[in-house]
Amino acid sequence: MASAPELNAPAGWLASRWTRLNGPRRVAGVDLARGLAVIGMIAAHVLWIDDLDIADAATWVAVVEGRSSILFATLAGVSIGLVTGGRTPLEAGPMHTARMRLAVRAGLLWLIGLALIATGVPVYVILPAYAILFLLALPLTGLGAKPLLMIAGGLALVMPVVQVGLDAAPVWSTAAGQIVSPLIGWHYPFPVWIAFVAAGLGVARAGIGRPAVQARLLGCGAALAVLGYGADALNGVGPASGASSFWAALWTAEPHSTGLWEVIGSGGFALAVLGACLLACRTVVTWIVLPLRAVGAMPLTAYVVQLVVWAVVATTVLGSAGDLRGFRDLEPFWPMTLGLVLGCTMWALLVGRGPLEWALDRAARAVGRGAPRDADRLSG
């Protein structure tokens, strides 16, 4: 006959997995926003998407283009902020340990990104840029909310101007430039995108669990989105002229243009989505969206798995992982998305932390002792 501890073990394990996904150490709204960002990036990769026309609901799916990855970068800043103390930056000793572990994670993310590029899947893999952004954020982790948000605003206004010149550099048309570009994630250029990470870090320092902060996020983010997209609609610069001149390249909100209006509009959109997710998860909605939160609790695993599945299926069915048109014609979005949501939900409830998140955490913890209490908030 089994002993009492043995009888209680399965229930205790399942309860601990449930608590880990829904307990006070997780921020449900951040997980929801991360889950939406991952699924949005899948949609941007595999769906045939027409240009966004607000008057035509059939084109609204185009909202995922560019904005999903910017949301992902903003949430990276939030996660870094949470792991380095939340509202109050960690003291010197623990902060040093946290920064060392972030650096280890950055190196591993870069290597994983290179492995994904090697699969031949025809997407711009975000992980190399993500790794560089982690490193660039390290000097910012000791700052409070106000200076971080001011830095984010300054970078958002200045760096798009600089980026136009950087993008025009002759090196990118050379063989060396074409090799370096994916290795540093230049499709998500870190000189501009560090603004999104700084904004997310500032939000974490402002107290992301406070209802007032969440409401301001929604309101201010929506206002920035209206400003950015409204200015783009009024400036008369169309997609075809986006790179025809310095000013045309700068005054645009086209996805992945890193134009000024994209940075303001899509950055605001990311903040508004985060605020909406945080507020929604203060209600019964948090239980309705639990599967999406499970995806957001293991975003690295989810991102990597969908690209690996893509490579395997495309190679098997089409004979090449690089056949983008052929893969999109297979209409893989819903099978991939539903499979990912179901798999992440079952894993989170039955096993716990995502496998890649667990592996990165173990590697990072090898750096030293004294882990910040909220370390698991970084990536699930």
UniProtKB/TrEMBL annotation:
Pfam families named among the record's database cross-references: DUF418, HGSNAT_cat
Source organism superkingdom: Bacteria
Annotated InterPro entries: DUF418, HGSNAT_cat
Sequence ranges assigned to domain Heparan-alpha-glucosaminide N-acetyltransferase catalytic in this UniProt record: 26-207
Keyword Membrane assigned: yes
DUF418 domain segment(s): 260-360
Keywords, in A-Z order: Membrane, Transmembrane, Transmembrane helix
Residues passing through the membrane, by range: 27-49, 69-90, 124-141, 186-208, 215-231, 269-290, 302-321, 333-352
Signal peptide (from-to): none
Protein name, as recorded: Heparan-alpha-glucosaminide N-acetyltransferase domain-containing protein
Organism: Microbacterium lacus
